[in-house]
């Protein structure tokens, strides 16, 4: 995905015989050959760069991660990861006088709300106080990166929704460090959504993705599961050590296409989440059954588009307002 393909069409055999009998001179031929060589080289270079960027994931240049043998720093920040770092930098520099609410997770988390301002307004309409609410989901986000982010956040009343799905348990990464940018107010412009209802995959393509996950990703999930579960526990502990209120949140999934084909890995993740919720006395929240989202609410198997976001954010806002009341976070300023 994301790799540019360049097609070059040569003249058909025999086409030259239909043209003027006077052919191009040697200098002209040399120029054409050189131009084609440059073009083909550029295409190959772009294809290689695109493939590397696609496989690199969200890690920005200020991030270094160690996953067993260590992965080192990787360049090329995604916009959502840069936005996440900037929000955390701003919160650290100027802690707000109202409760903070953040949603962590990968791109499925990022796509699950309409906008931060809409989420904040809806929390108030559902009976909650004014908040500094931010969707901090980012592409291919690892649990280890979320641990590092929590350690950078200010010690103020905060609810941390830890978005989890099958992808959360596929990374081998155990630790990460983040280096925050300088604070910037106002926040730089940010386009949150990659997916839209005007361009969703067909049911056939979604079913193919389902089979591909079972064939290619399930073995990775099994291999990295225990380590990922340990990092999830570390994330909960990091939140609680800073006085924050972590909440495990099951992220959306396209049940209309998935059916029962992921029952085994889903049962495993849900058992782990319930066990951790009981151990640390925190909520484990899921709207998957309650939302009743049809296939048309998803771009693929995991990422919501506009109709699904409205439903999901409404449920999330109501739960957020209830948790703010439960934890005694009255919000301070308006």
Q: How is this structure best described in words?
A:
46% of the residues lie in helices and 11% in strands. The protein has 334 residues and is α/β, with parallel strands linked by helices. The chain has a single domain, classed as SGNH hydrolase (Rossmann fold). The strands form 2 sheets. Strands 4-3-5-7-8 form a 5-stranded parallel beta sheet, with helices on both faces. Strand 1 and strand 2 (72-73) form a beta hairpin. The protein is globular and about 50 Å long. The protein starts with 25 loop residues before the first helix and ends in an 8-residue tail after the last helix.
SSE map:
Layout: H1 26-56, E1 63-66, E2 72-73, H2 79-93, E3 100-105, H3 107-110, H4 116-125, E4 132-137, H5 143-150, E5 158-164, E6 175-178, H6 203-241, E7 245-250, H7 255-258, H8 263-280, E8 284-286, H9 288-291, H10 306-326
Parallel strand pairs: 3-4, 3-5, 5-7, 7-8
Antiparallel strand pairs: 1-2, 1-6
Q: Roughly how many Å apart are the termini?
A: 44 Å
Q: Give the helices and strands as they follow along the chain.
A: HEEHEHHEHEEHEHHEHH
Task: Give the total of domains.
Answer: 1
Main beta sheet strand tally, sense and closure? 5 strands, parallel
Arithmetic mean pLDDT: 83
- The CATH architecture name reads 3-Layer(aba) Sandwich
β-strand number: 8
